[in-house]
Write a structure and sequence with these properties.
By secondary structure, the chain is mostly helical. Helices cover 75% and strands 0% of the residues. Helix 3 crosses helix 8, helix 5 crosses helix 6 and helix 6 packs across helix 7.
Length: 430
């Protein structure tokens, strides 16, 4: 059942800023250092970001079609439950809870703590990150409208400031950057693994579908928000990373997690480095805010469908217990894990879930024909699936441990579904 009109508080601008805030997080300010170490070429790094944006756009076209068909909250959980099988939806729901939102929330909050701890002597990244998680969870749990206004304002400000920084940084690049020699030692498999990392930074292009039931005129505004948000972020990523990778010889930046700060320091000294650090902190606040909103809706949808206790359903339009549980899980992960160790794991696992969703779209499209409008059919879904297959197979070969953890997560999600089904069967038989 679609959400009543009274509960649909989010317009096109709010939905678009949700997409942007979910995409622009810690990944873009760390990933290129790792990419430079593997690809050894700034041009290949930029190509990876361009290809990643193209794949995200293909995914957005597919998700937009499903959003028009199923304009309700829930994301991959809802889509897979309706297009493939309830088991697939339940598995996607569990994966979204842990890998899609809680783990990135933990990473973003920890990164916020790392960047801001110098402002508060004696503090730790974990405690600062915990304060951010709990504070934003409280804002969104108490008043949805206020939370929406907060992240709208924050995202608009961050895009303006980071865009300005990227333009100024590009203008300060030395003229010889275009002629700097770079080795040609990369491989197709290495490039594909790099795309897996890039996909982590782009993940969030689907954020609006998690709150579809709260979007006004969802059939029209949801697809537009996905495409507009993805296009804006792709342009921002290309400009920002061009400034990063050309700011200094690539050897000095390769493998460095703080590539943004190092690049800013090379271009403008300590003032530029401190300014960018402040902007990154702002970005991370917006990212945590957006993921807090979107992720909690997966809990609520699963509770509505009986996959979780009914207490997790939305009350007065806001899933407060779901927000609290998500915050708790993110806190646990933040205090026990690091961003870099989760990078391949998150990208690998979420790519497989997105691919399954696109398979569900193809199934419905073949069944309903032209009645289901899919912009870019069949090129968009085929391109997305081939891209994910290439990344996943390369990750299995080059990053087997992280890939195995991803596959183990899928297996555990299936086990949780089976156990839940068994429990519900016993309860109904009483």
């Amino acid at each position: 059942m679609n959400a009543p009109v009274a509960t649909r508080r989010l317009g096109l601008f709010s939905a678009t800023t949700l997409v942007v805030a979910s995409m622009v997080g810690s990944g873009v300010f760390t990933t290129s250092g790792f990419l430079l170490a593997d690809l050894q070429s700034p041009w290949l790094v930029l190509l990876a970001w361009l290809v990643g944006g193209g794949l995200a756009a293909c995914g957005a076209l597919c998700y937009g079609a499903l959003a028009r068909r199923l304009p309700e909250s829930g994301g991959e959980y809802l889509f897979l439950s309706r297009t493939l099988h309830p088991a697939a939806g339940a598995m996607a729901g569990w994966i979204s809870i842990v890998v899609g939102f809680s783990a990135p929330l933990a990473a973003a909050a920890l990164a916020f703590g790392e960047y801001t701890r110098d402002w508060l002597p004696g503090s730790s990244p974990q405690w600062l990150g915990s304060g951010l998680l709990c504070g934003l969870a409280l804002i969104h749990a108490l008043r949805m409208e206020g939370g929406a206004r907060l992240h709208n304002l924050t995202v608009a400000l961050e895009m303006l400031l980071i865009g300005a920084f990227a333009v100024l940084a590009l203008a300060r690049l030395p003229a010889e950057v275009l002629t700097r020699p770079t080795p040609d030692s990369s491989s197709a498999a290495g490039f594909a693994v790099g795309l897996t990392w890039v996909s982590f930074s782009y993940y969030g292009w689907n954020a609006a579908v998690y709150v579809a039931g709260e979007v006004r005129d969802a059939e029209r505004n949801l697809p537009r928000s996905l495409l507009i948000g993805t296009a804006l972020v792709t342009g921002l990523y290309l400009a920002l990373n061009a400034a990063f990778v050309f700011a200094a010889p690539w050897e000095k930046l390769a493998g460095q997690a703080e590539i943004g700060r190092l690049a800013a320091q090379a271009l403008g000294g300590a003032l530029w480095a401190d300014t960018l650090t402040a902007l990154i902190a702002l970005v991370l606040v917006a990212s945590v805010s957006a993921m807090t909103v979107a992720g909690s809706r997966v809990y609520a949808r699963m509770a509505t469908d009986g996959e979780l206790p009914r207490l997790f359903r939305a009350q007065a339009g806001v899933p407060r217990l779901a927000i609290a549980m998500q915050c708790t899980l993110a806190l646990a992960l933040m205090w026990s894990a690091s961003f870099r160790s989760l990078l391949t794991y998150i990208g690998f696992t979420l790519n497989l879930c997105a691919a399954a969703t696109v398979v569900g779209l193809i199934r419905v499209r073949l069944r309903e024909g032209a009645q289901l409008k899919v912009v870019g059919w069949p090129l968009a879904p085929a391109t997305f699936l081939l891209g994910v297959l290439w990344m996943a197979s390369s990750a299995v070969v080059r990053q087997p441990i992280e890939s195995l953890w991803g596959l183990a997560t899928l297996a555990m999600a299936w086990l949780f579904w089976r156990l839940g089904r068994a429990v519900r069967g016993e309860q109904s038989g009483r």
